[in-house]
Amino acid sequence: MVLDILQTDEAKQSVGKMMKDEKFKQNLMIDESTVRTTLIQSMTNPNSPHIKEAFKDPKFASTLAKSMKDEQKTLMKDLMKDPEYQKQLISVMKDPEFEKNLMDLMKSAAYRQQTMQVMKESLQSPLFQAELMKLMTKVSEDMTKPKELKPKKKGKSGGDSGGDSGDSSS
């Protein structure tokens, strides 16, 4: 009989009005500990259909990821300091299969295109250009110095340079 009454238009309107009432909403609110317990139980159960469905929703997944971003960042920084994690990470990177996959990736056109884009952007940066000029100047100076030093060494002390050239040729 109660169900029949709730099916009427008047009952539906009354329930709608109750749902809009703030005092009624406060009474319906679930306390924080119940929400936390329910969330933990749902998240720790890998077979939970509700969680699987929720993660299929891009809005839910992105909101969850954004809300956990700072915690994830902190976790990763802590893991990088952990010696056991470092060992595991290094062992994964030394794995021949990982190395092969990485090399295949680096050979791909997309990777090469991205690398070229990064290089172009870097070359357009005034700070990078200044650093590059310093490096090029240093390399240029280093290349000219040995040519000047070798003839001077041979001319000044023939015995020393003769011993040096004898060691480097054998």
From TrEMBL:
Listed InterPro entries: GerD_central (IPR041262)
Q: Which Pfam families match?
A: GerD
Q: Which domain of life is it from?
A: Bacteria
- Annotated region (Disordered), positions in chain: 139-170
All residue ranges annotated as the Spore germination GerD central core domain in the record: 28-139
Q: Where are stretches of biased composition, namely Basic and acidic residues?
A: 139-149
Q: Where is the composition biased (Gly residues)?
A: 158-170
User: What is the name attached to this protein's record?
Assistant: Spore germination GerD central core domain-containing protein
